[in-house]
Amino acid sequence: MAQQDNPASDYAILVRRSGMFTLVVAVLIVLLKLAAAVMTNAAAALASFMDALLDVLVSLLNFAALRYALKPADDAHRFGHGKMEAVMALFQAAFLTGASVMLFYQGVSRYYSPEPIAALQSGIWLTLLCTALTVTLVIVQRFVIQRTGSLAVKADSAHYRSDVLMNAAVILALFLVANSVLWADAAMAALIALYLFWNALQLARESLKHLLDHELSPQDRQQIVDALQPLPQVLAVDQLRTRQAGPRVFVQLRLVLPDELSLVRAHDIVDTAEQKIAALFSDAEVIIHADPASSVTQAEYPFAPDATAPASG
After folding, report:
1. Chunked in runs of 10, what are the mean pLDDT values of the chain (313 residues)?
2. pTM metric for this prediction
3. Domains of the chain, with CATH numbers?
4. Which of 33, 113, 199, 254 is the 20 to 30 A CA-CA neighbour of 163?
5. In the 8-state DSSP scheme, what is residue 295?
6. How far is CA 212 from each of CA 27, 215, 218, rounded to the nearest angstrom?
7. How far apart are CA 224 and CA 49, in angstroms?
């Protein structure tokens, strides 16, 4: 088994700083949106505030979850704690689902029983300020995601990207109400709710991939095979299994080698193969078992046609 020498310290530093920065900005946005909701009494503004409040609660949970997920492997968790990120992302999906149902009900209720809306200009300016803060936060999170691929940060970023559209929707709703299109407030609140629900579904699907040990993408798997093919005396790759937990990628496979190889030579080839695969990812744990060609009747990825039977399909 091989593991990269770099313990992904950059990953830990970036996601922790991202979590702190997100929390500070989220609290400020919540206060601004609360002021807008109270001043205007608009359903769309209330929907935006509720979403922002959920973002703060989720960011707090994310901060705690990331600290746990970044803990090194121990005797009770030999594969590390990375799946905590996926667990927290699943909680976020649940929060979003609950909020979307409540806000959709609020929008429908306001459509049939409209309430007076006031201070429209103040609400628009406050929402514009929230939009500027949100765009800044999304830019910072995009940088962190590109450097780390963190699922928790990606989940947070999905919220805040939707917030940019949501803020635009709130501004549009307030503008239309100011121009006597009174039903626009209720309609926009319902549309925001549907958009939140769609985001929840996407986030839940991504989380379940990690929790249920979904394979890496076909491109990543092929990249692993391509890295091994040039190795001398490697006849095939068999039983390739991959999964991801947080930042860490796990790869297991069997390397088909000629029968006549000595144990020492086979060990050297396996070591080289592990190093090549580990170099493909920022944080990888690789387990390779060597098989003699005579014991493999049908390899998954044959390199030498005469060594193993061709793969089916």
Report:
1. 50 78 87 90 80 74 63 60 67 78 78 76 89 90 81 72 80 84 81 82 77 77 90 89 76 90 90 90 84 85 59 40
2. 0.53
3. 2-211 (1.20.1510.10), 218-302 (3.30.70.1350)
4. 113
5. G
6. 33, 9, 17
7. 46
